[in-house]
Specification:
Distance between the termini: 10 Å
Number of strands: 5
Shape: globular
Largest sheet: 5 strands, parallel
Number of helices: 5
Structural class: alpha/beta
Radius of gyration: 13 Å
Strand order of the largest sheet: 2-1-3-4-5
Strand content: 15-25%
Amino acid sequence: MSRCILVVEDDFYIRESIREVLEEEGHTVVCVEHGAQALAMLETMKTCPDVILLDLMMPVKDGFQFRTEQRADARFAHIPVVVMSADPQLDSRREVLAARSYLRKPVDIDLLIAAAAV
Protein backbone atom coordinates (compact mmCIF):
# COMPACT_ATOMS: atom_id res chain seq x y z
CA MET A 1 0.00 0.00 0.00
CA SER A 2 1.34 3.42 -0.96
CA ARG A 3 1.79 5.81 1.94
CA CYS A 4 2.75 9.45 2.37
CA ILE A 5 5.88 9.71 4.49
CA LEU A 6 7.45 12.84 5.97
CA VAL A 7 11.21 12.42 6.46
CA VAL A 8 12.82 14.84 8.93
CA GLU A 9 16.59 14.44 8.60
CA ASP A 10 19.35 17.07 8.45
CA ASP A 11 21.95 14.94 6.67
CA PHE A 12 21.43 15.38 2.92
CA TYR A 13 22.84 11.98 1.93
CA ILE A 14 20.83 10.06 4.51
CA ARG A 15 17.67 12.01 3.62
CA GLU A 16 18.06 11.34 -0.10
CA SER A 17 18.91 7.67 0.45
CA ILE A 18 15.75 7.23 2.52
CA ARG A 19 13.71 9.05 -0.13
CA GLU A 20 15.09 6.80 -2.87
CA VAL A 21 14.43 3.56 -0.98
CA LEU A 22 10.88 4.53 0.00
CA GLU A 23 9.95 5.88 -3.42
CA GLU A 24 11.15 2.60 -4.96
CA GLU A 25 8.67 0.91 -2.61
CA GLY A 26 5.90 3.07 -4.12
CA HIS A 27 5.53 5.63 -1.32
CA THR A 28 5.19 9.40 -1.67
CA VAL A 29 8.04 10.99 0.28
CA VAL A 30 8.34 14.57 1.48
CA CYS A 31 11.70 15.55 2.99
CA VAL A 32 12.71 18.42 5.26
CA GLU A 33 15.95 19.27 7.07
CA HIS A 34 14.82 19.96 10.65
CA GLY A 35 11.90 20.12 13.04
CA ALA A 36 10.91 23.72 12.27
CA GLN A 37 10.58 22.86 8.58
CA ALA A 38 8.62 19.74 9.50
CA LEU A 39 6.08 21.72 11.53
CA ALA A 40 5.74 24.26 8.71
CA MET A 41 5.29 21.43 6.20
CA LEU A 42 2.55 19.84 8.31
CA GLU A 43 0.74 23.20 8.27
CA THR A 44 0.79 23.36 4.47
CA MET A 45 0.14 19.73 3.51
CA LYS A 46 -3.39 19.06 2.23
CA THR A 47 -3.50 15.74 4.07
CA CYS A 48 -1.40 14.58 6.98
CA PRO A 49 1.38 12.11 6.26
CA ASP A 50 0.75 8.50 7.22
CA VAL A 51 4.01 8.36 9.16
CA ILE A 52 6.89 10.66 10.13
CA LEU A 53 10.47 9.38 10.09
CA LEU A 54 12.26 11.60 12.59
CA ASP A 55 15.95 12.16 13.27
CA LEU A 56 16.73 13.45 16.76
CA MET A 57 19.92 15.45 16.45
CA MET A 58 19.28 18.36 14.05
CA PRO A 59 19.95 22.09 13.95
CA VAL A 60 17.25 24.76 14.37
CA LYS A 61 14.67 22.48 16.00
CA ASP A 62 15.74 18.99 17.01
CA GLY A 63 13.61 15.87 17.09
CA PHE A 64 12.77 16.26 20.78
CA GLN A 65 11.45 19.80 20.25
CA PHE A 66 9.54 18.74 17.16
CA ARG A 67 7.98 15.78 18.95
CA THR A 68 6.91 17.95 21.90
CA GLU A 69 5.17 20.42 19.59
CA GLN A 70 3.67 17.73 17.37
CA ARG A 71 2.17 15.90 20.34
CA ALA A 72 0.72 19.18 21.71
CA ASP A 73 -1.11 19.96 18.44
CA ALA A 74 -4.34 17.99 18.13
CA ARG A 75 -4.19 18.23 14.32
CA PHE A 76 -0.89 16.34 14.20
CA ALA A 77 -0.64 14.37 17.45
CA HIS A 78 -2.18 11.26 15.89
CA ILE A 79 0.50 10.90 13.19
CA PRO A 80 2.74 7.94 14.02
CA VAL A 81 6.43 8.71 14.42
CA VAL A 82 9.40 6.45 13.83
CA VAL A 83 12.56 7.81 15.45
CA MET A 84 15.87 7.27 13.65
CA SER A 85 18.97 7.99 15.70
CA ALA A 86 22.54 7.04 16.46
CA ASP A 87 22.08 8.53 19.96
CA PRO A 88 23.62 6.07 22.45
CA GLN A 89 21.00 7.16 25.00
CA LEU A 90 18.07 6.38 22.71
CA ASP A 91 16.84 3.49 24.85
CA SER A 92 16.56 5.70 27.92
CA ARG A 93 14.69 8.40 25.97
CA ARG A 94 11.97 6.21 24.48
CA GLU A 95 9.39 7.08 27.12
CA VAL A 96 9.85 10.82 26.56
CA LEU A 97 9.55 10.48 22.78
CA ALA A 98 6.58 8.08 22.83
CA ALA A 99 7.19 7.10 19.21
CA ARG A 100 5.67 4.13 17.44
CA SER A 101 9.09 2.60 16.83
CA TYR A 102 12.81 3.32 16.90
CA LEU A 103 15.52 2.64 14.35
CA ARG A 104 19.22 2.83 15.13
CA LYS A 105 21.49 4.53 12.61
CA PRO A 106 22.86 3.37 10.36
CA VAL A 107 19.37 2.23 9.51
CA ASP A 108 18.83 -1.26 8.17
CA ILE A 109 16.92 -0.92 4.87
CA ASP A 110 14.55 -3.80 5.59
CA LEU A 111 13.66 -2.31 8.99
CA LEU A 112 13.15 1.10 7.37
CA ILE A 113 10.77 -0.33 4.81
CA ALA A 114 8.85 -2.20 7.49
CA ALA A 115 8.63 0.89 9.73
CA ALA A 116 7.29 3.01 6.87
CA ALA A 117 4.51 0.50 6.31
CA VAL A 118 3.23 0.76 9.88
